[in-house]
Design a protein that fits this description.
Distance between the termini: 69 Å
Oligomer: single chain
Number of strands: 12
Strand order of the largest sheet: 1-2-5-4
Structural class: alpha+beta
Largest sheet: 4 strands, antiparallel
Helix content: 40-55%
Radius of gyration: 49 Å
Strand content: 5-15%
Length: 442
């Protein structure tokens, strides 16, 4: 807006984000975008065998599952197991690394189930459910196993079913979880703290924790100010004495990051029609996107940002009302001084003139009461060429009083004549005149 970017924090002259193509695909010059980071994380989570970094095995009447060693943060983590029948007995060891051993103690009945709980990298949990089916029947190996001729054959079928179920879960829910983790890391990146990336290649055998990329090999989607101070404080407006309203924002605030990450995941993912797992993976993705867009678990919500901006807008509106009220009052007051009507001025001047004439005449009369010097006898008219009439002169005291009155009237009138052309100060000039007259009367 007018050359100022609203979501760049304090650096309002810097465009806050990169464009869509660069964010998703990278810059084409060696800097990885979101799509590449999702792929790297997915490889690390699925592992070489595609079982979510779990290992399966067993012999005779047992089936085993174990977390990959050494311990790392990728792929599935075993969380436990339960059985609906004493025919299948699970023994779980939490580790780390965790491991599970299922013993087929006797032939299970049709419909008996084994449940294995798994924890995924994005913090969600999933469960694989395997049900026993009758001998000679067919079904999906990823959700059922055939009862064999004996417990060893049944255990072998159970082992195959466990492997198929883990493979499908890895290609669907684990893959969706990988996208969430990669997107979260990507959108957490800032100029001072680049996104975390899986060490590699190779990525499918990575065991070291994700490490920060660099500006040279990773796209930094957010370009604005990334200080630790509240986003609203990055721009402020002083609306009144002692009142400052925060109006700043950053594009990488938590609510924005969450929303952008979910939209970017849907844009970056693809679901080929020839992939049997596409439907399940799509459902796993949408379930996680929907959950994250609920902004649960204490995450900042868009409504919170809207409320903060609404409060700022209300404060600005109220300050505007106060300023307008004050302005109207001052305008009215100033108008009563400056816009005096001509009729009112004429009436006040005539009144003042009358008062001055009355006061001046009285004072001149008082000044003539001073003692006059003796007069010489007048010559007869016949003896004089010119008739001279002499009046008595006022005393020094009377003359001084007269001069004082004359100067005060002249000064006041001169001041009023100077102020009248400007249209200002008539009331103050008239007040001064009135005060002068009152002082003279005293």
């Amino acid at each position: 807006m007018n050359g100022r970017y609203l979501f760049s924090g304090k650096t309002s002259d810097v465009q806050p984000t990169l464009g869509y193509t660069e964010i998703i695909e990278g810059d084409g010059a060696g800097r990885a975008g979101l799509r590449q980071m999702i792929d790297e994380r997915r490889q690390a989570d699925l592992g070489v065998a595609g079982l979510g970094r779990l290992t399966t095995g067993g012999a005779a009447a047992t089936a085993t599952i174990a977390d990959e060693a050494p311990v790392h943060g990728y792929g599935f983590k075993l969380a436990g197991a339960t059985s609906s029948s004493a025919a299948m007995t699970p023994a779980f060891t939490a580790g780390p690394p965790a491991n599970l051993t299922v013993t087929v103690a006797s032939q299970p009945a049709v419909g008996d189930t084994l449940r294995v709980q798994l924890t995924l990298p994005d913090g969600t949990t999933e469960e694989i459910l395997l049900a026993a089916r009758a001998t000679g029947t067919t079904g999906q190996a990823s959700d059922s196993f055939e009862i064999g001729v004996d417990v060893n054959a049944t255990a072998a079928n159970l082992r195959a079913s466990i492997t198929a179920a883990l493979g499908k879960e890895a290609a669907t829910t684990l893959s969706a979880a990988s996208s969430q983790v990669a997107a979260r890391n990507f959108f957490a990146g800032t100029p001072s703290s680049p996104p975390l990336r899986v060490p590699g290649p190779p990525y499918n055998t990575a065991t070291a924790a994700p490490a920060a990329g660099t500006a040279a090999n990773t796209v930094i989607w957010y370009r604005g100010d990334d200080g630790s101070d509240p986003a609203r404080s990055t721009a402020s407006v002083q609306v009144d004495k002692g009142q400052i309203v925060g109006t700043g924002a950053r594009a990488n605030e938590e609510a924005f990051r969450i929303g952008l990450a979910q939209l970017a995941i849907m844009a970056a993912e693809s679901f080929p029609a020839n992939d049997a797992n596409s439907q399940a993976r799509y459902e796993a993705m949408t379930a996680r996107v929907s959950d994250r867009l609920a902004f649960g678990n204490g995450a900042q919500k868009p409504a919170e940002i809207i409320t903060e901006f609404g409060s700022a807008q209300t404060a600005l509106a109220r300050a505007k009302e106060r300023h307008e009220s004050t302005k109207n009052y001052l305008d009215t007051t100033l108008s009563s001084v400056e816009t005096v009507s001509r009729e009112e001025v004429a009436v006040q001047i005539l009144s003042l003139q009358t008062q001055l004439q009355a006061s001046g005449g009285a004072l001149f009369g008082v000044s003539g009461l001073g003692a006059a010097p003796p007069q010489r006898p007048r010559r007869p008219a016949a003896m004089s060429r010119l008739m001279l009439t002499r009046t008595g002169r006022p005393s020094r005291v009377g003359f001084a009083a007269t001069l004082k009155v004359w100067l005060k009237m002249k000064f006041a009138r001169l001041r009023m004549l100077v102020l009248m052309p400007t249209g200002r100060g008539l009331s103050s000039a008239i007040t001064a005149e009135t005060s002068s007259v009152q002082s003279l009367r005293l």
